[in-house]
Amino acid sequence: MTADQSTLSRELSGLGSAAAVLEAYSESVMNTFGPPKRVFVRGEACYLWDADGRRYLDLLSGLAVNVLGHAHPTVLAAVTGQIATLGHVSNFFATPAQVALAARLSSMTGADDAKIFFTNSGTEANEAAFKITRMTGRSTIISTEGAFHGRSMGALALTHNPKYRAPFEPLPSEVIFVPYGDIEALASVVDQTVAAVVLEPIQGENGVVLPPEGYLAKAREICDQQGALLWMDEVQTGMGRCGSWLVHVDEGITADIVTVAKGLGNGFPVGACIAIGPASRLLGPGSHGSTFGGNPVAAVAGLAVIAVIERDGLLDHATALGDHLTKAILQLDHRLITGVRGRGLLQAVILAEPIAAAVVDAALAAGFVINAPRPDVLRLAPPLIISSAELDSFFSVLPSLLDKAAEEAS
Prior knowledge:
Layout: H1 3-13, H2 18-28, E1 40-44, E2 47-50, E3 55-58, H3 61-64, H4 73-83, H5 96-108, E4 114-119, H6 122-134, E5 140-144, H7 153-157, H8 162-165, E6 174-178, H9 183-189, E7 194-199, H10 215-226, E8 229-233, H11 247-250, E9 257-260, E10 271-276, H12 296-311, H13 314-332, E11 337-343, E12 346-351, H14 356-366, E13 368-369, E14 371-374, E15 377-380, H15 388-395, H16 398-409
Helix pairs in contact: 4-12, 5-12, 13-15, 14-16
């Protein structure tokens, strides 16, 4: 260990126990997420360890981020090898990793005229997409009820939840919200003043809500009829999460703009705004920028993730495990479970009572990380490398977790 590494180690260990870390957190970190429920210090594959040495099965993947789990050796080797060679240059220059990742992402769209703008997150990817829509000369954007596209001012303008929006209004642009999955409602508001329609192929933060069959294709037709851009937000659903690289492409749709992030870097911050056809030429020199977007370390992280997903057949694995998850949950035949919905390894367990938050706490106490995007919905988004046996370990205790939460709520 070098002197510098020793100093860093002392700084981290100097915080001591989990209680000391949490106390320091409350004094030094803005209270935007509420009190942390655990202090995690290590991860490996599908598991996390807290500061007290307790192990947890991670069924959330850092909100659908860690598609290859924690400390994946291929990603680790790629990142450390790159940062030891070249960690950062400005975007006045190119790097091989940046160009290679752009080509891989372009190919995922199925189009031969896609171009990439790299970002550090899904929110930033959506901000870039927002600016592209402004370059059409139109200003109205159609979004959907229940949509979530990020927390920055532009992305927030497209996000439906009034709780998130109200404190920061007025927000940019004219945004019209229509019911998700209602094609007639969409058709009624899209005219030649509309710049774009932005859709999630599956609404993640709204509780893993799937649209009716054919909805995306009909949305494409409506946009074509009125000269509007179709913008697909695949930040949560993309990169293998749902059993395909991009859900809308798997359904035979070509979008004008696609945004991705989360699973792309397996925890290393990287996102991308992909524009196709005429939309790819709307931003020019000086119209947008990013200091860190597309840096070589982020780019090799993305390339490593894609390589492992391909090598290990994880798209098919995600589909198979998603089917296994659905069957296992339904076979529990529990009075508090009314259904399961989702695709691949983005799944929601629908509850008969609004006790999801209590179930999340009970699961954490039992050694499982899940979350509750809605009062009656549990969201599961485990690493794509998870095994059926690991999933079954959660299903075996879920009935008792539900019973405990219901008992405490009564």
